[in-house]
Amino acid sequence: xxxxxxxxxxxxxxxxxxxxxxxxxxxxxxxxxxxxxxxxxxxxxxxxxxxxxxxxxxxxxxxxxxxxxxxxxxxxxxxxxxxxxxxxxxxxxxxxxxxxxxxxxxxxxxxxxxxxxxxxxxxxxxxxxxxxxxxxxxxxxxxxxxxxxxxxxxxxxxxxxxxxxxxxxxxxxxxxxxxxxxxxxxxxxxxxxxxxxxxxxxxxxxxxxxxxxxxxxxxxxxxxxxxxxxxxxxxxxxxxxxxxxxxxxxxxxxxxxxxxxxxxxxxxxxxxxxxxxxxxxxxxxxxxxxxxxxxxxxxxxxxxxxxxxxxxxxxxxxxxxxxxxxxxxxx
Length: 331
Known about the structure:
Largest sheet: 8 strands, mixed
Distance between the termini: 33 Å
Helix content: 25-40%
Number of strands: 14
Number of helices: 8
Strand order of the largest sheet: 4-3-2-8-7-1-13-14
Structural class: alpha+beta
């Protein structure tokens, strides 16, 4: 029998001035969702069922940027995306542009299990969800008061920042309202100061007691994103990947993750360079992201867990069959 392990994340790129109360709230949510996954694994659940169940829990809690609590488009609406992958046979399913499905990760699972396709988006994804009888809600269900305020600040920042690679130069801009203390440090991700960058993507990677790996990722995307923007989370090989060696879920600057095919690269360097899991993670975070900011979680078929990030913090947690369990934010 293999040894099970689980890792979860709630996004990379954390405001270093995040209030202690918010930090503790994040840890409570992570601990609760992690424990739900541990309980399922102890009961003999498959890796695929566990990643779906845990990401559903994360989608339902408004603290993180997925499901309820998703970031808003520039129109003030929610467009969510998710993917799931089974390392057995590398089966996968993904969705984008979802606006009424309560748990996008479950729709991604249905795409994998119940359709001839791997990826559905926008109206086609919504129609398939209704055909499958998945729970749907009004778009307003996903919108929180905090995110409405954050969108306002993001729009003000974007009137100044035309390119996300241009560093902030001071507090004499509209974006100073979003947290002037961070501007001198140039902590900018996708054009927005980290202090108004919505808590990020959620994800889960699991290896079960049979040695089977699976991963799932879900997100609301970027605050103030263009309507129709698709990030890394639903893209197999970029935001999510699972095979017979490992399972990976990524978070951070989606465009950089897409360019680097980050999740697949972790598996590739394990396979082709023979690196162990943590070394593979460290290599990909250091060598593949160029100037991008991101993080990832991973598990191996032998029950190892690993994570890495090159930005300020990552909401994360992990547990293994031997009783180890932790949640964290910073280094």
